[in-house]
Structure formats: C-alpha cells, structure tokens
Amino acid sequence: MGAIFQSLGRTVTAGVVILVVIALIAGTHGKMMEHAWWAFFFRWLHVLSGVMWIGLLWYFNFVQTPSMPKIPDEQKPAISKVIAPTALFWFRWAAMATLVTGLILAWMNGYIGKALAFSSKDHYAIGLGMWIAVIMWFNVWFIIWPNQKKALGIVQVSPEDKAAAAKMAGMTSRINTMLSIPMLFCMVAQQNGGL
Length: 195
Ligand code: HEM
Hints:
single chain; 195 residues; mainly alpha; 0% strand; binds protoporphyrin IX containing FE
C-alpha cells in the first residue's frame, strides 16, 4: 500500500482505478454509447484541468509570491530554478487542457456559437465565463509564460529587462486571480439558472 504513495504516477493511477470501480458498480459503463455521457465525461475532464490551472494560479498568488520576500537570498534559487519552472509547466498545460476541454464541452452542448456571440439569453452566463477564461488563457500563454522565461533566466536578458519581465508577469498573474472569481461564478451559474 505504502508503495503506491511513494510514486506520483502510481498515486494518480490508483485514483483512476478507484474511479473505474465506482463507474462499474454504478453501472456508468452502460451509458457510454450516449452523447450525454460523453458530454459529462468532457465536463469532468474540464473541471479536473481547471482545478489544476486555477489551483496553481492561486498557489502562485496566495503562497509563492507573498513568501518570496521572507526567503533568504541564497535559498531563492530553490524557488526560481526548481519549483517555479515545474509549477509553470503544469500551469500552462493545464490552462491549455481547460480551454480545449471547455470548447469541446460547449460544442457538445450545442451552444458554442450562440454563447460566444451572446445571441441567446439562456447562455449569457457561460458565454461571459468562456470569454473571461479565454482572456485568462491568453494571458498565461502570451504574457505570463514569455515574461516568466525572462524573469527565471530560462531566456537570457539584461537585468533591467529581467526586472521588467518579472513585474509584467506578476501583474498579469494578479489580473488572472481577479478574473478567476467572476469566471468561476459564470461557469457554475450556467447549470444553476444562469445569470
Ligand atoms: C478556458 C476556457 C473555458 C471554457 C471554454 C469553458 C467552458 C465551459 C463550459 C462549456 C461549461 C459547461 C457549462 C454548462 O452548460 O453547465 C463549463 C463548466 C464549468 N467550468 Fe469551464 N470553461 C473554461 C475555463 C474554466 C476554468 C479556468 C475553470 C476553473 C476551474 C472552469 C471550471 C468550470 C466548472 C466548475 C464548470 C461547471 C461544471 C458543472 O456545473 O457541472 N472552466 N465550462
């Protein structure tokens, strides 16, 4: 048993095995030919990746950034050279997975066009949620990550450019934290009466 929890891969696999057992007992496999089941499956994948993305965003904003001034200079490379690059890897790919699964879900639900165009009152909530989340995804891939590469020394730049990049990445990360609050409200509002 202990061997499972000594490896992240085995731990995640164990989670999937528990899920399969639950699905078999609940008879979920009998519904797998239905469109509604696959839409549900993508909803689950979407929430799973969304939790990874926003969890790491909140880790950066609630834990890592406020802790940095309290860490002695000689220990800071542990964060900038080891922890932050790994966290940023999962962060940006979770953002990508959340976007892709969210768009597939909206398409499977049959409202992707009208929600994004705000042409149906019934889909204002998810339309707004999707637009806010797409802006957040853009910020991750086109502002935060390119600037973090400079700030963490993955891309070599002058000390002035490094400081400017760190400031820009930090500010955009704060903007995404702010946007995550209404975004998540809109995501869950759609199934619960809309806006
Ligand atoms: C990146 C762009 C995103 C798109 C295109 C998108 C799309 C969607 C769609 C289409 C739904 C289904 C709404 C419904 O009909 O009930 C949904 C629900 C949801 N999304 Fe997103 N989403 C995105 C980002 C996020 C993020 C970042 C999170 C963060 C955790 C998130 C969490 C959720 C949750 C919790 C639900 C509700 C699930 C439920 O009520 O069963 N989404 N999203």
